[in-house]
Design brief:
This protein has 2 helices and 4 strands. The chain is globular and about 35 Å long. The relative contact order is 0.11. A hairpin with a 2-residue loop joins β1 and β2 (21-24). It is an alpha+beta fold. The strands form 2 sheets. Strands 1-2 form a two-stranded antiparallel ribbon. It has a two-stranded antiparallel sheet with strand order 3-4. Helices cover 17% and strands 11% of the residues. The chain has 2 domains: 1-27, no CATH class; 31-133, E3 ubiquitin-protein ligase SopA (Pectate Lyase C-like).
Length: 133
């Protein structure tokens, strides 16, 4: 009875008990409505795009101020000209993304993956990076 109750509680909280081991699954993910808005208008301030797959996305000149993009997959995305004031990129995969000329000085980028990203005149929270010029 106790195990059955734990399984029910686990589903409600985003976890699962299997064979005595507790597995936690993310209880959050991107809003499909917000993703559709971004695709249709290239604008989505304050959107929830956590865990969204935006690989190789053409996000040039996108307006994404204060958007949540935690854990988003943005490998190879082109973000040139995008506005990203106070956007959250924690744990976001930005490998190979084109971040040329962006002002990310107010972005949250804890554990963001920037390996191979194109950084030229890119203002990051810790200073300007010109390594990709």
């Amino acid at each position: 009875m106790r195990d059955a109750l734990l399984v029910v509680i686990g589903f409600l909280t985003g976890g699962l008990l299997i064979g005595g081991l507790w597995f936690v699954t993310p209880a959050w993910a991107f809003s499909s409505k917000d993703l559709a808005k971004l695709e249709a208008t290239n604008e989505c301030p304050k959107c929830d795009l956590d865990l969204a797959n935006l690989r190789k996305g053409d996000l040039r000149n996108a307006k994404l101020d204060m958007a949540f993009m935690i854990g988003a997959k943005m490998r190879g995305a082109d973000l040139r000209g995008a506005t990203l004031t106070k956007t959250t990129f924690n744990k976001t995969l930005l490998r190979g993304a084109n971040l040329t000329g962006l002002d990310l000085s107010t972005a949250l980028m804890d554990k963001a993956k920037l390996t191979g990203a194109i950084l030229c005149k890119t203002k990051l929270p810790w200073g300007e990076d010109n390594s990709g010029c």
